[in-house]
Structures are given as structure tokens and as C-alpha cells.
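Q: What structure does this chain adopt?
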Amino acid sequence: MSQRDSILRALLEAGQRLDQRQLVAGTEGNLSARLEDGTILITASGRFKGTLTPNDLVLVDLEGKKLEGAAAMSSEGWTHLEAYRARPDIGAVVHAHPPHVLALNLQGWDMEAVPLAEAAYGFGSVPTCEFAVPGTPEGAASIGGWIEKRDALLLDRHGAVTVGSDLRQALARMEMLEAVARVIVLARGPNHIRSLEAEQVERIRTAALLAGGRKEAIDAWAEKVG
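A:
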């Protein structure tokens, strides 16, 4: 199987998983992956993620020029392309609307300092980007100041973006982001969560860095949790 065929299959499977785990509804969300030649396979606009086919994907370059495909690129494609341009290490981008993440956001809570080891290991401190109107180039501008330093971002009143070296990693981060947000909601918000001791924070920080986490995000998590 060629690299392109493997990535194509991974995109279709990721769309099904997002739908099955209720991280998107209807035509919400979008997925993309970078090919070896630097081009991007991305979901087309208005597609149900749970029933994606190869015809629901578009090939574009880093400037958004369509190279293959009959449909238009996802309306959030500019946000994806901003991430790829900022970081050559990014191989995949996932945008979804995780309900518990959105619930936290609507209540004015953030995920910058969640006192759980899973948060530190999975993504570290997760900032909330400046509000951007969905489906416009504003999305790319809103993540521009953060994506170089983070692997997960909250989009104000819109959902979340996660990135990874491949689709598996980006999707895992999205699922973990929603799982951590659900714990916070079940705990009735940050004000009801027990804090970590300074020694515990440092031990988690050290272990998360050894596990390969992004240093900027983990250091920010440790500083804010502490």
C-alpha cells in the first residue's frame, strides 16, 4: 500500500471514529493529513464525517490551491494550512466540536491548568484562541500565535484543534481533550477540583517531558497548575 493510500484510509477511519464518539455532529469538523510531497489531503466542505469516501477528500497545496478533487476544500481549511505552514513536524490536523470542551468554554472555563497527569502527558496547557467567525480566514489568524507552541487549542465558542505527527496522534489528542473536559464537567468545574502539590507537579512535568511531550506546553501547564 502506498503512503497516499495509507493516509487516505486513515482519514476515512478517523472520520468514522469522530462520528462514533460524538465528537462531531452532521457535517461538523474536518480532517487533514500531509503527504510526502508536502501536499495536503483534506475533507471537502459539507461532508458527513461518519460516511467519508475518497470522493469527499480534496488535495491542496500549502497556499490552498486545489490540485485534485471535484469539491471545495473545507471552510476551515485555512486553519489547517496555517498549522502546516507553521510547523513542518505536523503530519495531521483534526478539528472537532467535542461537547464537554464546548460546555467548559461556554461557561467561561479553560483547560490551561488541569491538575491531571493525563492532561500533562496528552497536551499540556491548552489555551483558548481569540474568537473567530467559523468558516472564515479568521480561524487561521486566531491560531497563529499559538500553534507553534501547542498541540491542542480551544477555539472560542467553536470547538478544538489538535495536531500530531500523524492522524493517530492528532485524533488521540482530540479524544483525550474531550475526556479531560468531561472529568472537569463531572467535577462541577475547576473550583471543585483538588490541586496538586508542588512536588507532584514537578514529578509529572519531568515524566511528561521524558515521554516526549511538547516542552512549551508542559512547562506552561506546570507553571499554571502550581
